[in-house]
């Protein structure tokens, strides 16, 4: 049973890390303002699972030049 908890923890940490990485990447490209960056970071840090899931579903689609 412990291995399941470890795998879940690894998945959650990876998902949160990806959300923060994507948020910072979008900020550097000018797609997110500083205020939105701060609010999303607070949401992701205070509520890691819920904040990351909401960010994944709410974030805008990438511009066309990013998709290729």
Summarize the structure.
By secondary structure, this protein is an all-alpha fold.
Describe, in plain words, how this protein is organized in 3D.
It is a single chain. 81% of the residues lie in helices and 0% in strands. It has 68 residues and is an all-alpha fold. The chain has one domain. Helix 1 crosses helix 3 (48-58). The longest helix is centred in the first third of the chain and has 27 residues, at 2-28. The chain is elongated. 10% of the residues are buried. The model has no long low-confidence stretch (mean pLDDT 89).
What secondary-structure arrangement, pairings included, does this model have?
Elements: H1 2-28, H2 34-46, H3 48-58, H4 64-67
Contiguous runs where pLDDT drops below 50 for at least 5 residues:
none
The number of helical runs is 4
The amount of beta strand, in percent, is under 5%
Number of domains: 1
Structural class: mainly alpha
Shape: elongated
Measured on Cα atoms, how large is the radius of gyration? 14 Å
Instruction: Please provide the ordered H/E string of secondary-structure elements.
Output: HHHH
Key descriptive features of the protein:
68 residues; mainly alpha; 4 helices; 0% strand; elongated
């Amino acid at each position: 049973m412990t291995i399941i908890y470890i795998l879940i923890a690894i998945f959650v940490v990876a998902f949160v890390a990806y959300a923060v990485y994507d948020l910072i990447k979008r900020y550097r490209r000018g797609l997110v303002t500083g205020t939105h960056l701060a609010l999303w970071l607070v949401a992701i840090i205070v509520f890691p699972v819920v904040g990351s899931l909401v960010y994944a579903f709410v974030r805008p689609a990438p511009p066309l030049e990013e998709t290729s």
